[in-house]
Amino acid sequence: METGTSNFIEEIINDDLKSGKNSNVVTRFPPEPNGYLHIGHAKSICLNFGLAKKYNGRCHLRFDDTNPSKEEDEYINSIQEDVRWLGFDWGDHLHFASDYFDKLYDFAILLIKEGKAYVCDLSADETREYRGTLKEAGKESPYRNRSVEENLELFSNMKAGKYKEGEKVLRAKIDMKSGNICMRDPIIYRIQYSHHHRTGDKWCIYPMYDFTHCLSDAIEGVTHSVCTLEFKNNRDLYDWVLQAVNFEHRPRQIEFARLNLNYTVMSKRLLLQLVRENHVSGWDDPRMPTISGLRRRGFTPESVRDFTSRIGVAKADNIVDIALLEHCLREDLNKKANRAIAVLNPLKLIIENFPENEELMLEAKNNPEDESAGSRMLPFTKELFIERDDFKTEAPKKYFRLAPGMEVRLKFAFYVTCTGFSTDDKGNITEVRATYDPDTKGGWSQDGRKVKGTIHWLSAKHAKNAEVRIYDRLFQTANPYDAPEGKTFLDNLNPESLTTLKNVKIEESLANAEPGYICQFERTGYFCSDIKDHTHERPVYNRAVPLRDSWAKIDN
Length: 556
Ligand code: ATP
Ligand code: MG
Hints:
Elements: H1 8-18, E1 26-29, H2 39-54, E2 58-63, H3 72-85, E3 94-96, H4 101-113, E4 117-120, H5 124-131, H6 148-159, E5 169-172, E6 187-191, E7 205-207, H7 209-220, E8 224-228, H8 235-244, E9 252-256, E10 259-261, H9 268-276, H10 291-297, H11 301-311, E11 318-320, H12 322-336, E12 338-340, E13 342-343, E14 346-351, E15 360-365, E16 375-380, E17 383-387, E18 407-410, E19 415-423, E20 429-436, E21 454-455, E22 458-459, E23 464-471, E24 498-506, H13 508-512, E25 518-521, E26 525-529, E27 540-545, H14 550-555
């Protein structure tokens, strides 16, 4: 598995190991179960599990489920499936922040007893007002100096459900004048009458992220708590809480830049909106930047891991070109995907001098990049299908495919020369005719005669019908968040992100493939039989990426 080169996080870990601060490495991936994972999460997963692997340590999967919401079970299952699919294993370390609710409550009591937390009655608006701004210090809450006894009683009443939501909160007593707004008496518990997927109705108070996260890390013995840059200011609070409860084990928070990709959105909130409002078919729509969407589209775990390792670990935000992700997939599949023939937009080609009922079996290589992939036999008959695009009634300059009088190679088969074509009364081409040269079997002439064009074909009698879905970028602008006044990111959706071809002809082997089968269609791209919709009777293929690689051009 790819481990990547050393980065600034590894340098910190190396120092901590050298100085004896830590004797092992424990990391965690802490998703909130409020949506499906996306490619940004894949970055974090590969980083955290990758570090554990590199240092022979371990990485925990911990659900940050402090915010009860709906559909959590679906999200929890999909998240585990996605992490496993990426190739990682948390062993016995599947954790839930909610497993620590009792402990966290005890820590809150401890803080109150030490005079480091208080129950506050300010409304949400008042709290915001009192907090101050970056330029202005905050004001102390009038409830700040309640006695320990009163705080203990009020907090216990909060837990007992004696107040309404928002009526009271528990706040850490730190410093309303701190230059870091996170430290201005942050809320650590709030009242919420919600059913929790694991603790049921036991609790009506829930701990806040900043209080929960550091303590969960500490309880689990996490050594390096790697998170994204937006938590930089929260690090003071992370350290303060551990200090305030006097936790012996002190995990270290390290921030890195989150992954941003152009032509897509990555926030779960927006992805959920796309799903809810049916702009896509679901979280696993192959146009979605979700891991399940990428998987359904035909991405491999290897290509996603390679991508996350190539972009590296940065300290400053940047935007990565989605073409790099596609490039990584082509690189991976070029070596391992078998080739097969599909005619996306079929046009009949009649071989005039080939006998009516004869079937000739011709050998076709499965993968020119991999001899061990072997070969298969393709039937050649009088009536074939070729791509409509591969024929023109008149050949323009530098056109090397089929046109009246022109000779091309039918891949793996013969040289053929076009003799004519027919049209219907509207002028649409209905069939093309050609003669073949029997001395060019396999696609090579014995007299050294060369042709410039090679096209693919299928025997009309043997070809199976299929539906093929061609995907383009989900958004038509590189930065979908950037919408003119009165518009939203939805206005930047690409109306042509999905084209469904209903009359595709495919090799029989492609019809017989199982769902999730990834291959290259000769000359048109990498495709994957749809995990949900593909059956042997009704084959359905998704295009993962076209063959053309714009990234390789930029790169070189
Ligand atoms: P979103 O804003 O998409 O909802 P999130 O950060 O709220 O993402 P979490 O479930 O809280 O999602 O994230 C779990 C972990 O994944 C966190 O450690 C977070 O920092 C990391 N993560 C989320 N998005 C990215 C990203 N784009 N790049 C790298 N890491 C990310
Ligand atoms: Mg979040």
